[in-house]
Specification:
Peroxisomal Thiolase, Chain A, domain 1, binds oxa(dethia)-CoA, five-stranded mixed sheet, 2 domains, alpha/beta
């Protein structure tokens, strides 16, 4: 039995925050943001939208495109760094509730921007073991809820959104998720961190006054390690599976910074046409960035059944990972 990525779906909030809007909020310019990141605009969820609402809408699309009923889903996993609630209930449980899914395992994972690659790894293992048949995986983020809009080093980068997929079981090896490699190293934890609101710095007046509830990033240090790690990941997974870069139909890197994507793409000799690029319109949506980019390709008919996708992610923790995945979705809307 193999695991297959049967469908993809996405949801982006309607509100657009442009670089010009940010010029009015912090000391920055459209020119600086565009040149250093490639980002032009990002989506921001409204005050009455929470992460599970975004995840729910992306999931509805993925379920419909997979051609299954919600009662056929036997597990729901959500990757998020901006959950509805800090400890419980999980965002996956909230998504399940909104979908009307009952009596199946639902839980969140914390792997920051590598979340979707971790989800694929988990879902693949559950399906291949025979324990589950139709797993809903969701990367959903309302990152705007943990951003300090007075901190120009982070507020220009991130946006809200969600992506979801159905991973099901198949006997057809040509549809299979080939491989996933993923790792973490907590020694780099401080470089990209939301220091407050956990057991280390609990929600207290002094911690909130110090803005510890917001994400902090040592951008330049993260940048350098990201380029190296994302490149090494790809080399490792291709070598391990004896696959050449030419055999990859589409490269879907985490959308954190256009310069990072360019550096990795050119080192690995992937053409621009073969590389997914949504950074300019969505910014960095963390765990949602890869499935949102995949959905973009799907809706623009740039991936088709059987295409070999190479996913590549890096994020806080640090976490990182790559996946070789055949696109096994069949229905175009
Ligand atoms: O998704 C998880 C992984 N995340 C990433 O991979 C993000 C990695 N990092 C980055 O994408 C980039 O490091 C940033 C876009 C965050 C920053 O770009 P950079 O080229 O590394 O700039 P820098 O941090 O070295 O800063 C250069 C200058 C500094 O000024 P001085 O010290 O040279 O006078 C900053 O203070 O740019 C300044 N700066 C800004 N200027 C205008 C920093 N942020 C801004 C801003 N607008 N928003």
């Amino acid at each position: 039995m193999y695991a297959a990525l049967r469908s993809i779906g996405s949801y982006v909030p309607k509100n657009i925050l442009t670089n010009y809007d940010l010029e009015k909020m912090v000391e920055t310019t459209n020119e600086w943001i565009t040149k250093r990141t490639g980002i032009k605009e990002r989506r921001i969820a409204s005050s009455d939208e929470v992460t599970s609402d975004l995840g729910y809408k992306a999931s509805l699309q993925a379920i419909q495109r997979a051609g299954i009923r919600v009662d056929e889903i036997d597990m729901v996993i959500c990757a998020t760094l901006s959950p509805d609630y800090l400890t419980m209930p999980s965002t996956a449980a909230m998504i399940s509730k909104k979908l009307g899914i009952k009596n199946v395992m639902a839980f969140d994972i914390s792997a920051a921007c590598t979340g979707f690659v971790y989800l694929i790894s988990l879902a693949k293992a559950f399906v291949e073991s025979g324990a589950k048949k139709n797993i809903l995986i969701v990367g959903a983020e309302k990152i705007s809820s943990i951003i300090d809009y007075e901190d120009r080093s982070t507020c220009i980068l991130f946006g809200d959104g969600a992506g979801a997929a159905i991973i099901d079981s198949t006997e057809d090896k040509n549809e299979a998720i080939l491989d996933v490699i993923a790792s973490a190293d907590g020694n780099y934890g401080d470089l990209l961190i939301t220091p407050g609101c956990g057991s280390k710095n609990p929600i207290r007046e002094d911690n909130v006054k110090d803005k510890l509830q917001y994400m902090k990033m040592a951008g330049n240090e993260v940048f350098k390690i990201a380029v190296k790690t994302l490149t090494n990941d790809v080399i490792e997974i291709l070598q391990k599976n004896n696959i050449s870069p030419e055999e990859i139909d589409i490269f879907i890197p985490h959308q954190a910074n256009f310069r990072i994507i360019e550096a990795v793409r050119s080192k690995l000799n992937f053409s621009v046409e073969k590389t997914a690029l949504t950074i300019s319109k969505y910014g960095n949506t963390s765990s949602a960035s890869i499935p949102m980019a995949m959905n973009d390709l799907y809706e623009n008919k740039k991936i088709k059944y059987g295409d070999l996708m190479l996913l590549d992610a890096f994020g806080g923790g640090f976490t990182w990972g790559s996946a070789l995945v055949r696109f096994a979705g069949k229905n175009f809307n």
